[in-house]
């Protein structure tokens, strides 16, 4: 938990954000500014600033499995995933997350 991190606060339930999916490793919630009819964020519960800081192979696998689990849950068969890493690539929130975009 990073006290200055908005996604840590969301994970901690401070904003009452609804989770589309949750397991012991991650939460999934809707992006507040959707760029597609379905725009979800798959977010590890552990605070990790970006993909560059994550070497835990198990957690990396869990995040991709989380994408599959949530898309299966909501019946989304076709979608794009995106991970912005670093400011120049457009990363705004420095808590690793996978965008899931679909119609
Ligand atoms: P990125 O540019 O990859 O860091 O993406 C950060 C994403 O987080 C953006 O698409 C924002 O719209 C989204 N976002 C920021 N604050 C919130 C929030 N409180 N709840 C849901 N999504 C958020």
Structural notes for this entry:
The chain has helices at residues 6-11, 57-74, and strands at residues 21-22, 26-30, 38-44, 79-82, 98-102. It starts with 5 loop residues before the first helix and ends with a strand. The chain has one domain (6-102): HIT-like (HIT family, subunit A). The chain contains two helices and five strands, in the order αβββαββ. The chain is globular. The mean pLDDT is 97. A five-stranded antiparallel sheet has the order 1-2-3-5-4, with helices on one face. The relative contact order is 0.24. It is 23% helix and 22% strand. The longest helix is centred in the middle third of the chain and has 18 residues, at 57-74. By secondary structure, it is of the alpha+beta class. A hairpin with a 3-residue loop joins β1 (21-22) and β2. The protein binds adenosine monophosphate (AMP). Adenosine monophosphate (AMP) is lined by residues 6, 31-33, 84, 90-93.
Features:
HIT family, subunit A; 103 residues; 2 helices; alpha+beta; 23% helix; globular; single chain; 22% strand; five-stranded antiparallel sheet; binds adenosine monophosphate
């Amino acid at each position: 938990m990073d006290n200055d991190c908005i996604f840590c606060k969301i994970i901690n339930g401070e904003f009452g954000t609804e989770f589309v999916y949750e397991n012991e490793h991650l939460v999934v919630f809707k992006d507040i500014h959707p760029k597609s009819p379905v725009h979800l964020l798959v977010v590890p519960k552990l605070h990790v600033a970006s993909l560059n800081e994550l070497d835990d192979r198990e957690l990396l696998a869990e995040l991709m499995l989380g994408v599959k689990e949530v898309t299966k849950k909501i019946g989304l068969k076709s979608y794009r995933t995106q991970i912005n890493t670093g400011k120049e690539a457009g990363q705004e929130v420095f808590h690793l997350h996978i965008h899931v975009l679909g119609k």
